[in-house]
Amino acid sequence: LSSSSSERKPYYITTPIFYVNAAPHVGHLYTMVLTDILKRWQVLNGEKAILCTGTDEHGMKIQQAATKANIPPKEFCDITAETFKSLAKRAALSNDYFVRTTDEDHKEAVQYFWHMLRERGYIYESKHEGWYCVSDETFYPESTIEKRLDPFTGRTFMASQETGKEVEWTSEANYHFRLSAFKDRLLEFYKKNPEFVVPATRMNDVINWVSEGLEDLSISRPVERLTWGIRVPDDETQTIYVWLDALINYITKAGYPWAPGREQTGGWPADVQVIGKDIVRFHCIYWPAFLMALDLEPPRQILTHAHWTLGHQKMAKSTGNVVNPFFALDRFGVDVMRYYLAHDGGISQDSDYGNRFIVERYKKGLQGGLGNLVSRVTRPKIWSVRKSVEAASVGALREPDESTTKQINMLESLPEKVSLKMKQLNPGAALQIIMDAVYETNKYLQFNEPWIRAKKETDQEAEQKHIERTIYYSAEAIRITGILLQPYMPDKASQLLDMIGVDKSRREFKDTLLGADKTYGDAAAPLGKGAWDSLFPPLSVEN
Ligand code: ME8
What we know:
The protein has 543 residues and is of the alpha/beta class. Helix content is 46%, strand content 16%. The strands form five sheets. It has a six-stranded parallel β-sheet, with helices on both faces. Strands 5-4-8-10 form a four-stranded antiparallel β-sheet. Strand 4 (123-133) and strand 5 form a beta hairpin. The longest helix has 25 residues, at 461-485. The model is unreliable at 1-5 (pLDDT under 50).
């Protein structure tokens, strides 16, 4: 073994690569945000992590869109790829790579992959007939096709029952991949890796589909039909099927083709690949089969999330039923949008998008919850008590009163509870737990009213200790939730930690231990009401 193979593999996480036939919408933003939270969570845990996102630029769908726009396809792609890139930036995505399938390194990776599949005998040529759907870039079996009527034009057409998208009959010679040969290997793989697809219901769907049997997959198209794509090596008359091309993006930036012993330095196998539930078949069946054919490792897990709807219809660029993510980000700010999407976005169930829901979440969670907590604890009178609590005397504060015991238990179990949800790939559930800690702390403060007690002159030591205790464990809640919120709201969370004077070097997961940081608060000035306003100001637009 070479020395490099003993290096620890970085954590590697990906988003799908998005089609450039139209501008991004809030659904794409959601996938990006979920992925980014999971990556930042690893970084919080001191791991080296890599995030790859990008654009899917070949295929019939893009070719047609470019023709319609009367722009040469590459120029057409350059324009929309740029908007996806700016979305990533605007959303504070910490992506290490942005892959475009028109990149040279990607084309080389795809051609090499093809070459290897052929070497190993997994590709053969034959005539293919079937219903092709350009919008979904896939062939559908006869049994899943139905006749539909366009209510506006009165035209009838053939469509996929599943997506309702038009299909056209095609009959052509092309190359096929022996997908049918992988049924048993795939089923065995799923059995050994029952958490390969998250959530479990979708793992079951996948197992059922594969159990029903797999047909070989057409993986090229004649150049007369499809010019916009990567050529089949040694056959200029055929273009590689866009999904084979696209899936390989995940290993392109991980350095494929690898020099022996260097497989893992680029991060492959991916730890998690995040996708929407619309593309499960491609990622959970075809993709591992392609990899298995070359004895490459499949990804470790695939997180499949539900969809955002608008008026209970799927948000989709093909129907135009979309929310422009740039407008939303401008209106509410990046961290508020990240908070909302993570908080309300579904893994199993779809969620309906609405500005009034964003306003509600903002008012309840951020202004009323976190903002209120910070403003209460950083008031000059209160904060000075916090500062006076010497590290050494914290032990003495532990004398139990019921509410404090509850607060201590809550804070001590919080990081592990959050961690568990993250391991289950459920950032939304983790966020709920963090926010519950914030709400509980507000109740704790409300119950003990240190601001009233602190006003009264007291020489009673027990009373003094009680005040100190309440304030100390409330401040700890801000510090700990502030650290845990960093993956969700990178800017707001660091602003918050700055306010209470947490040193930049003490903001990792290991610092979330209750009492772990004995130094914070010294640097920070008492802030009071103004702090609350600067962190979560009133929204300029209410709905
Ligand atoms: O499928 N709600 O690209 P695409 C939530 N290029 N997420 C949504 C969504 C919605 N309403 N609509 C889209 C492709 N998404 C291929 C992928 S990967 C090798 C190739 C998100 O532009 C979700 O992640 O149609 C979905 O899977 C993806 O965008 C589809 O993006």
